[in-house]
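Blinded run. Sample ID left blank on purpose so nobody reads anything into the name before looking at the predicted structure. Input follows.
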Amino acid sequence: SVYPVKTDSSGALCGTANTKYTTEAFRVPDPMPADAIIIAAPGGSDQFYIPSHDPALVKRLVAFLQTREEYGAIFVDTRYGDLPGTFPATRANLQNASGRSPDVTVSFMWDDQVEISGKRGIEYNSYPPYRGMHGSFSPVDVHNTLIAAGPDFKQGLSSTLPSGNVDVAPTVASLLGLGMPDAQGRVLFEALSRPSVEPVPTVTPMTVSATPVTGLKFQLPTDPTGATLDSALTGEYGAELHLKMFDDGNGKTFTYFDSARAIRK
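Blinded prediction complete.
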């Protein structure tokens, strides 16, 4: 539960003298309810924080998400063990050592084949009035764009080799003549005009399937109350995680998240 906060003459939580927000601010209640679930809703996926870290509450939340057809693949912090129909958060690098990462992260369902105004991909999202959002686990959202320009980069190159945000820092460090041996990412040698080495990388697609769950009753997205069930499905929930394994040709391998989706039957 969260409570709306009314702004006063001092400004408070909804804005400053130079900024006006169009959505209402909320304050987390204090003391926190024992069964509280805090939801961060960045758009095409939701992140759930459970202050109590109650395993039973996590299982209830996961079961609810699996029955709602607007929700897709689910990742759970490894502290809760292997929950059927889910993936460990470490599989998508969604878990950090500090314990501040979400207890549960879930993508909304998506369809990467539908086109609207010439643009491919649709999905559910958590809050309609967005001017932009972080996206789902759809390949349309995950396959983003990195643009680099300058004398150290090849001109006119369009590379489809997998890469990620973690690769930017080691690439820049390499151009500056600095080393980052402990970096999670790699140097994007394929984009450099004068690479220090000419590796021959290989990319191997990999699919991981979650343990299926049976006996569920799926609730249609068109009814928020959950009263309208999908009679066309038998009640089996599964999920697939697609990864790309990158071998840089110099003895190092990197794993890139490609997409993840739920499969309901």
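Unblinding after everyone has recorded impressions. The CA atoms of residues 74 and 106 lie 4 Å apart.
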